[in-house]
């Protein structure tokens, strides 16, 4: 089991837990600063890591701000279906037919290669 590191007080001859530091709270950024960072990102096209280092923020904060900005503009988040349910159903039915055809072809191919031929007389 993991335990806290201990240090020995040499004068008293006792061991005590090492003093812990209080975690820093994350700073609150203004909406104007967030817009400025996102505008800079859009204009330069640099990777999020470089922009985060440039402005002294975390890459997770930058990604969160981008996601919030997209949601505010009404842009769907990645992975959200943009097609109507009817169009999705037609697409899925088409994919299903294609996959069933492929499965049938593979079954026939296995059947052809697994039957013994009459020419092998060994």
- Spell out the helices and strands N to C: EEHHHH
Largest sheet: 2 strands, antiparallel
Strand order of the largest sheet: 1-2
Strand content: 5-15%
Note the overall shape: elongated
What is the annotated CATH architecture of the domain at 27-79? Orthogonal Bundle
Low-confidence regions: none
Number of strands: 2
| Rg measurement, Å | 31 Å
Mean pLDDT: 80
How many alpha or pi helices? 4
TL;DR of this structure?
With 122 residues, the protein is mainly alpha-helical. It has helices at 31-44, 48-55, 59-73, 85-114, and strands at 6-9, 14-17. Among the domains are: 27-79, Arc Repressor Mutant, subunit A (Orthogonal Bundle); 81-112.
Textual characterization of the structure:
The protein has 122 residues and is mostly helical. Among the domains are: 53 residues, Orthogonal Bundle (Arc Repressor Mutant, subunit A), CATH 1.10.10; 32 residues. It is 55% helix and 7% strand. The chain has a two-stranded antiparallel sheet with strand order 1-2. Strand 1 and strand 2 form a beta hairpin. Helix 2 crosses helix 3. The longest helix has 30 residues. It is elongated. The protein starts with 5 loop residues before the first strand and ends in an 8-residue tail after the last helix.
């Amino acid at each position: 089991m993991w335990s806290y590191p201990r240090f020995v007080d040499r004068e008293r001859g006792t061991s005590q837990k090492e003093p812990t530091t209080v975690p820093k709270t994350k700073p609150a950024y203004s909406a104007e600063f967030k817009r400025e960072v996102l505008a800079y990102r859009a204009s330069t096209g640099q990777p999020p890591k470089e922009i985060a280092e440039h402005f002294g923020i975390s890459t997770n904060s930058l990604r969160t701000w981008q996601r919030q900005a997209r949601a505010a503009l009404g842009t769907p988040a990645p992975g959200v279906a943009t097609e109507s349910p009817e169009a999705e159903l037609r697409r899925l039915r088409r994919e299903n037919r294609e996959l069933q055809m492929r499965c049938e072809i593979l079954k026939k191919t296995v059947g052809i290669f697994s039957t013994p031929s009459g020419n092998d007389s060994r």
